[in-house]
């Protein structure tokens, strides 16, 4: 019988170290590996840019959790995405991405690959008829989905878009950073590739930056492996260890992140200072039914638009005591930020510009009563 998600998150790639019996495998810091016969690596390891046992453990684990064939881990989410695009794109190719994709990804697609002759279209993925029209007319090499999106929490039908993309010969990449494989597994829904900023929920403790690509096709995986090996934007052994340490509790953390976020969303949806709460677990969310179908829970990320505009947003960010004002997300502690001024500043003036009255909250796993009390006093102070 195949093992369950939590069992695999703890055990895959994590066999005890045979010499000492250490239950937690050591961090292999060595940059190089001894050979007895020239050109014949012992146990396959030769030089740590190409392969390192600690990185291999993490990669095996990630492939298993996402239901993929192979995974590759990198120094950041952006390094992972860049490795995938370098592996599959050539001048003249086209990328279709969401019109509220993560701003850093849009910046790379527009400003790095644009001058190399790779064009892009930013579209609304929630309207499948127009998705098909754009894909049919632009013939993209890659369709890049994010769901839920950062920071507008839009839900994209992974299965629906993948079917359309495949009909027209495109590869589908899903950025699964917000949901994680604990809640949503894009490869099982038809996607070809999964992208992670492991900096977020997989690491889970705001103490390591990393990224990963998981693939279901051996030929495509080989191309990503070459880019990882040849260009070297790898995760260090220590970063791979920290990420693996975080993953062991991913399942239980995501349950708590999700229940805390749902409680906050329900509690403050009708607060007088709040124009709109964006959380896919709310029945009022336009993507709620699709989210219910493709996610097991709704995750720990939520956004809010405030009645009082940017001024209210700025006050809220400085009035909370437990929610720390900081970019990033997915750690055990609750964070709050203003996408327009912080994480998504780079897309100001583009089609991806975010509303000025928007705040994004990464709901942590603290006690829910404490989170409610803090957000209530901060929102009340805006009235
Ligand atoms: C959804 C999403 N994808 C990718 C990235 C890029 O990841 P990293 O910051 O690890 O390079 C981020 C970073 O915030 C993100 O939120």
Automatic annotation (TrEMBL):
The modification N6-(pyridoxal phosphate)lysine is found at residue 200. Its cofactor is pyridoxal 5'-phosphate. The keyword Transferase applies. Its EC number is 2.5.1.48. Gene3D superfamilies: Aspartate Aminotransferase, domain 1, Type I PLP-dependent aspartate aminotransferase-like (Major domain). It catalyses: O-succinyl-L-homoserine + L-cysteine = L,L-cystathionine + succinate + H(+). GO terms for cellular component: cytoplasm. One of its GO terms (biological process) is transsulfuration. The keyword Nucleus does not apply. Keywords: Pyridoxal phosphate, Transferase. NCBIfam families: PRK07811.1. Belongs to the trans-sulfuration enzymes family. This is Cystathionine gamma-synthase. It comes from Aurantimicrobium photophilum.
